Amino acid sequence: MSSTIWSVDDHLEDILGAIRPLDPIELQLPDAQGCVLVDDITVPVALPPFGNSSMDGYAVRTADVAGATEEFPAVLSVIGDVAAGGEGLPTVGPGQAARIMTGAPLPPGAEAVVPVEWTDGGTGVGAATTMRPAGEAPEGASGEVRVHRPVEARAHVRARGSDVQAGELALAAGTVLGPPQIGLLAAIGRGTVRVRPRPRVVVLSTGSELVQPGEELGEGQIYDSNSFALAAAARDAGALAFRVGAVTDDAGTLRATIEDQLIRADLLVTTGGVSVGAYDVVKEALSSVGDEDEPGSGIDFRKLAMQPGKPQGFGSIGPEHTPLLALPGNPVSSYVSFELFVRPAIRRLMGLPDVHRPKARAVLKADEPLSSPEGKRQFLRGAYDSESGSATPVGGAGSHLIAALAHADCLIVVPESDTSMEPGAEVEVVLLG
User: What distances in angstroms separate CA 172 from CA 68, 178, 352, 374, one per listed residue?
Assistant: First the structure.
């Protein structure tokens, strides 16, 4: 255990300095969601690849519908249908029109598309409201159509390359692939993509007093909330999270459990058992890690100049030197520690350039001054109002008050040098939402 008191910044710098982004892999598009793109992606073909209709209607020559009105419509001969994906486009000549569906290519000879609502739809009985299905009205692809309004050239036609041109940058390296990005990759014909995979994070909570939700509580027992909260936080950060139910206060059992989990972990997170008590099993189990069988491994247990979250552990374990962060067991301490240290580590594994939560300046809204221990950076749960630019403390300073945490969307930061913060003072807030 280090006798030095570490600052929050030095502890985080030590963690990020030891963690490298995961190696890139090639994944199928459905598997790449949530991953970070490794290379710039350029567009191989223009989108759309051909001029196509943005409406259901009729492909026409503009001269044929010039001056058309409902009273004096242009009467055109319908020569056939043009459907999206169809083959054998008809050529539209003078006095002719072709029924065209949204997304279908503009046929030769045609210069614009007249929406079906501007025509009689081939029925001869006033303005149409919809295109009659081809299967129900095959005669609609022939006969006559009355057009009630003129159109300009290229009206209701999406030009080739109007979305993106061939050679343009589609997605930059470092982009997180969400649904729109996956859709764009598919649209330009990419079936696979090179990404950094989502980190696999194993969360273990420790304590013989912990019971899984849904089970009966015995005397002196509490429900295991930490592993659920931290696994959810890991998923929220972009990781694949694996939650291991509470491990009893036995060093051998814990060490064996951790070693079993190494095969599926890019990062291990423990909660509880890192303080100075007789039953702080994480420290007991992991203090011996880093012997001659595992050179370069080892877990350093530290005291940080922060509240909550003073006791912390960080190092690596196993033959692959898998990073491990040992967090305190109090629910608020563990969650605040996750936000400050584990989330940035996950984002670094993903290869993201910015690993930090956004911060803002806010005016402290409180009924009385906030007190803070000298020499410690305090993180208070708060509610941030972006409209007024204010932050209001939620709940007290206790590290066990998890109910207040559920109503907080920011952490109010009280610097090490301040022992009191007056209402109306400007504070820094870490935005959690």
Answer: 48, 13, 12, 45
Checking if the pLDDT of 125 tops 80, the result is no
Q: Alpha carbon of 88 to those of 49, 54, 105, 157: distances in Å?
A: 17, 20, 11, 19
Is residue 178 within 8 Å of 33, Cβ to Cβ? yes
Dihedral sign from CA coordinates of 413, 336, 21, 350: negative
Q: What tens digit of pLDDT does each residue of 345-395 get? A: 999 999 998 899 999 999 999 988 888 889 999 999 999 999 999 999 987
CA distance 423 to 363: 8
Burial (CB < 10 A; 0-12, 13-18, 19+), residue 250, is: middle
Peptide bond between residue 197 and the one before it cis (omega within 30 degrees of 0): no
Q: Omega of the bond prior to 150 within 30 degrees of 0, cis?
A: no
Question: Helices (H), strands (E): how many in the chain?
Answer: 9, 29
Nearest residue to 109 (alpha-carbon basis) of 70, 143, 76? 76
Coil, strand or helix at 414: strand
pLDDT in tens, 78-100: 998 888 777 778 999 999 999 99
User: What are 157-216's pLDDT values in tens digits?
Assistant: 999 888 778 888 999 999 999 999 999 999 888 999 999 999 999 999 887 777 777 878
Q: What is the DSSP string of 356-370?
A: SPPEEEEEE--SSPE
**Residue 8: what pLDDT?**
96
Give me the DSSP letters along 316-357.
EETTTTEEEEEE-SSHHHHHHHIIIIIHHHHHHHHT-S--SP
Q: Do 201 and 241 meet the contact criterion of CB atoms below 8 Å apart?
A: yes
Q: Report the distance separating Cα 271 and Cα 246, nearest Å.
A: 10
How many of the other CB atoms lie within 10 Å of CB of 328? 26
Please provide the DSSP assignment of 79-109 as one string: EEEE-TT--SPPPP-TTEEEEE-TTPBPPTT
